[in-house]
């Protein structure tokens, strides 16, 4: 079982895996968040590309390795990120090249302590974000602490992404996706369009769903819960008067190796490995991610092995990189605010 008291994201190579293989938040989502933030300050949309209002700043809570934090750096004079994981904060600092971004170790609940530490004036805090982390928190405790600590004009953005869909590349599928105008459709509509023109999509997604929902069934209640439901029933209305929601489907070119590394960056994989390391190594327990990779490599005629494969073996890595896989990510954002 996944234990919420364990820092799975800070263990061994997890911070680097997380930073390298989690999906990048799309620019149109960032611009949507900034536009909503600007509207709270009566600023014109024409300044969207250079929104660095004098003295205004953003705070990214539960920031992990700073994947979302860094995307805000060109939009605000100062951006601050906090997380409870020492390993994640260390990786965030190591990979940070933005002079206006700072990190420190705080819980997402410790908002007033964070403001004091960074000497942030509440009146200058334009945006508070939390990306791909709300599922780790007690929502009532978090939202109560948040609204008690920020000004009414501060925008709050709850960001994340849903379960990715695997698309085996084909010219027909690519054309359909381009013509469908992803930004105007939801994930289901796009998936249905592609599925009928990409025969292997159903099979590979079946492998993927089996890996997530069946083989890790006892471990997914924490981290994977965050990618199960994009519109989870959280008590937004109890704490905020205004609530906007928008989805951003994005097709990203990838390969089997990167998708496997994404799965290995999840907390449930690390928890499973900790509980079963000896059994995996002596072959009495299968590594579900290795099995997932082997099943696709078998379909691609790159292996005869449909049991556990060594994910770190150079030949297997080379084979996985050869398998082109496009991944359909559906990012989402909840924009929350109260009347001034």
What is the topology?
Blueprint (H helix, E strand, L loop, with lengths): L13 H8 L5 H14 L16 E5 L5 H5 L6 E6 L2 H9 L6 E5 L5 H7 L7 E7 L7 H11 L5 E7 L3 E3 L3 H9 L7 H9 L3 H17 L9 H4 L7 H4 L2 E14 H9 L2 H15 L6 H12 L14 H9 L1 E14 L3
Parallel strand pairs: 1-2, 1-4, 2-3, 4-5
Antiparallel strand pairs: 5-8, 6-8, 7-8
Helix pairs in contact: 1-4, 1-12, 7-8, 9-14, 12-14
State the assembly state of the protein chains. Answer: single chain
**Mean pLDDT, all residues:** 85
What structural class results from the helix and strand content? alpha/beta
Over all CA atoms, what is the radius of gyration? Answer: 21 Å
Q: What's the helical proportion of residues? A: 40-55%
Assigned CATH architecture of the largest domain? 3-Layer(aba) Sandwich
So, the CATH homologous superfamily of the largest domain?
Vaccinia Virus protein VP39
Order of helices and strands: HHEHEHEHEHEEHHHHHEHHHHE
CATH top level assignment of the largest domain: Alpha Beta
Q: Uncertain spans, ≥5 residues at pLDDT below 50? A: 45-50
In the CATH scheme, what's the topology name of the largest domain? Answer: Rossmann fold
Distance between the termini: 44 Å
Tertiary shape: globular
| β-strand amount | 15-25%
Number of helices: 15
The major pleated sheet works out as:
8 strands, mixed
Count of strand segments: 8
The domain count comes to 2
